Amino acid sequence: xxxxxxxxxxxxxxxxxxxxxxxxxxxxxxxxxxxxxxxxxxxxxxxxxxxxxxxxxxxxxxxxxxxxxxxxxxxxxxxxxxxxxxxxxxxxxxxxxxxxxxxxxxxxxxxxxxxxxxxxxxxxxxxxxxxxxxxxxxxxxxxxxxxxxxxxxxxxxxxxxxxxxxxxxxxxxxxxxxxxxxxxxxxxxxxxxxxxxxxxxxxxxxxxxxxxxxxxxxxxxxxxxxxxxxxxxxxxxxxxxxxxxxxxxxxxxxxxxxxxxxxxxxxxxxxxxxxxxxxxxxxxxxxxxxxxxxxxxxxxxxxxxxxxxxxxxxxxxxxxxxxxxxxxxxxxxxxxxxxxxxxxxxxxxxxxxxxxxxxxxxxxxxxxxxxxxxxxxxxxxxxx
Length: 384
Hints:
Layout: H1 2-27, E1 43-49, H2 56-64, E2 73-80, H3 86-94, E3 100-105, H4 114-125, E4 130-133, E5 138-139, H5 144-150, E6 156-161, E7 163-165, H6 173-195, E8 207-210, H7 211-216, H8 232-241, E9 245-249, E10 256-258, H9 264-276, H10 283-308, H11 313-337, H12 347-367, E11 370-372, E12 375-377
Parallel strand pairs: 1-2, 1-4, 2-3, 6-9, 7-10
Antiparallel strand pairs: 4-8, 5-10, 6-8, 11-12
């Protein structure tokens, strides 16, 4: 009993310190671009698309409607082994837009994850200074590239932007709100960690980086076979190099929208995929997140233990309170930063649901399999 109580206290204190660290980083996020009149950079927007016939048209329409001069950007759609009309739709749009190119992949080489190979092919075909990622199921604002331009200076190697969920007709309001808040929490943590100059996670829905920075770190290097992580692992590689600054673009004019999962099963598969890449993080980031994960495990041990030892209920309740207070301390200013105050009523219930969701997703994602784009994967593609 004494050992458990000590464990609970230590893990709770660690969690509070980690939360305070992230909170301080969130407060250091600059809302202002570094350039008042961004007109200098050129962009290569890369979109990897696998069986996205429903989404690719609206996505490309939004990307091609940028306010900057069209000779300053190109769009490269990498048709990744699609068996539907994705390539045909993108090709039809390309016939009337000289800045759009479509290339197709028929096979992913052994030892490569499909997504990383697709975007790597796109980068290899690109001509411009800044590589910009978004996904085929996303919609970007007209000021997107202009806003990204404003956050780059000579020392910035990567800019991460906001991505939020757009509403879907017919989707249960509570289910949407809970997962929208959970998704937002990942963005808040990404912003806070970048503000603390210790990037943890990222989102390839809205990411821009210098091609030179990508080349300097050897691209994806030895993590090319990790199925997920074309975002987190890349931002950590660029940070680890020490040669470039990383900025968070907390500007609604550069905010991207994507679609939520439509079912609980699809949501869980997505979270398993996200959890699968965490064991491939840099050592410092892994250690930092492992402490938080241990706190989550302690909460679960406390709750389960209290079912058999009633004296543990007080400790279990205390840890749950610590978790809720810590997350509220991040998410209340985070929802203000991302202009999503309407999601605040979901902070408490989402915090409670997140506990078993994170534990289950990380364990099954790391040690089991997950579904993605109609395929089943383990966390790493084995060389053949």
